């Protein structure tokens, strides 16, 4: 029996890789965060699901390992990619106590990529991905990463930009970035990528500071080269100069 850590993309069928689809279909049990399990139920309604709420990631992984040890093939599902803010790392860490369990990581399309495609091509050149969630990372370290990315003139994809308890975190991040980036830097954000209610907007860094978003939104901060072309956010790589 095997434990698969499956990144299923944005949560719609068309954005799922063929490998992810096949693995989920052949698994005995699907284990995941409640919201993600609900998304998968719409695509695979006949599968057996076990769910845990947010902030029970360790318990979720241990449950999956136990189920595999009992003779089941299990898919531990993650939104986007299983290794980008997903469960792959934790599963491998905890698996040292379950040497009999074989683990395979199934990649998926993370929202930095699927969201960028909605906006245009904001990540064509070098970019950084930064989460504003301070549940596992001290805010001081997040601030430093934002500063370094801004000084390096990276395009930036921001995950977990806000929540009920972190309502002003995106504004705080923008204040840090504005120390090094022009207020007219092109930015964009997408809510519910690939799901019902998808919304996308292109704005500037100065305007973004005062915009409210939620935890289902991915934010994109352009570099000094990023511009709007035919309504799309584009960061040129410089092919015209070659």
Please give the structural blueprint.
Blueprint: E1 2-7, H1 18-26, E2 29-33, H2 34-43, E3 48-52, H3 57-69, E4 74-78, H4 88-94, E5 102-106, H5 111-119, E6 120-121, E7 127-131, H6 139-151, E8 155-159, H7 169-177, E9 186-191, E10 199-204, H8 205-208, E11 217-221, E12 227-229, E13 232-234
Parallel strand pairs: 1-4, 1-5, 2-3, 2-4, 6-13, 7-8
Antiparallel strand pairs: 8-11, 9-10, 9-11, 12-13
Number of domains: 2
What does the average pLDDT come to? 96
What's the CATH C level of the largest domain? Alpha Beta
Low-confidence stretches: none
Named CATH topology of the largest domain: Methyltransferase, Cobalt-precorrin-4 Transmethylase, Domain 2
**Strand fraction band?**
25-35%
Q: Would you give an account of this structure?
A:
With 242 residues, the chain is of the alpha/beta class. It has helices at residues 18-26, 34-43, 57-69, 88-94, 111-119, 139-151, 169-177, 205-208, and strands at residues 2-7, 29-33, 48-52, 74-78, 102-106, 120-121, 127-131, 155-159, 186-191, 199-204, 217-221, 227-229, 232-234. The protein has 2 domains: 2-109, Tetrapyrrole methylase, N-terminal domain (Cobalt-precorrin-4 Transmethylase, domain 1, 3-Layer(aba) Sandwich), CATH 3.40.1010; 112-234, Methyltransferase, Cobalt-precorrin-4 Transmethylase, Domain 2 (2-Layer Sandwich). It is elongated. It has 8 helices and 13 strands. Helix 6 (139-151) links the parallel strand 7 (127-131) and strand 8 (155-159). The termini are far apart. The strands form 3 sheets. It has a 5-stranded parallel beta sheet, sandwiched between helices. It has a 5-stranded mixed beta sheet with strand order 7-8-11-9-10, sandwiched between helices. Strands 6-13-12 form a 3-stranded mixed beta sheet.
């Amino acid at each position: 029996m095997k434990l698969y850590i499956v990144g299923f993309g944005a949560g719609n069928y068309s954005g799922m890789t063929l490998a992810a689809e096949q693995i989920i279909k052949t698994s005995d049990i699907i284990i995941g965060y409640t919201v993600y399990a609900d998304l998968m139920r719409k695509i695979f309604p006949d599968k057996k699901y076990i769910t845990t709420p947010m902030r029970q990631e360790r318990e979720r992984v241990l449950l999956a390992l136990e189920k595999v040890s009992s003779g089941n093939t299990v898919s531990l599902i993650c939104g986007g990619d299983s290794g980008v803010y997903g469960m792959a790392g934790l599963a491998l860490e905890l698996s040292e106590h379950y040497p009999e369990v074989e683990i395979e990581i199934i990649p998926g399309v993370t929202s930095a990529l699927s969201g960028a495609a909605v906006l245009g091509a904001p990540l064509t050149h070098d970019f950084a991905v930064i989460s504003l969630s301070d549940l596992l990372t001290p805010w001081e370290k997040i601030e430093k990463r934002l500063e370094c990315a801004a000084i390096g003139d990276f395009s930036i994809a921001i995950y977990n930009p806000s929540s009920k308890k972190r309502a002003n975190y995106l504004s705080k991040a923008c204040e840090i970035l504005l120390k090094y980036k022009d207020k007219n830097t092109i930015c964009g954000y997408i809510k519910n990528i690939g799901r019902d209610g998808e919304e996308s907007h292109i704005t500037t860094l100065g305007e973004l500071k005062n915009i409210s978003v939620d935890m289902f939104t991915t934010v994109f901060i352009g570099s000094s080269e990023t511009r709007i072309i035919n309504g799309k956010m584009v960061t040129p790589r410089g092919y015209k100069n070659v």
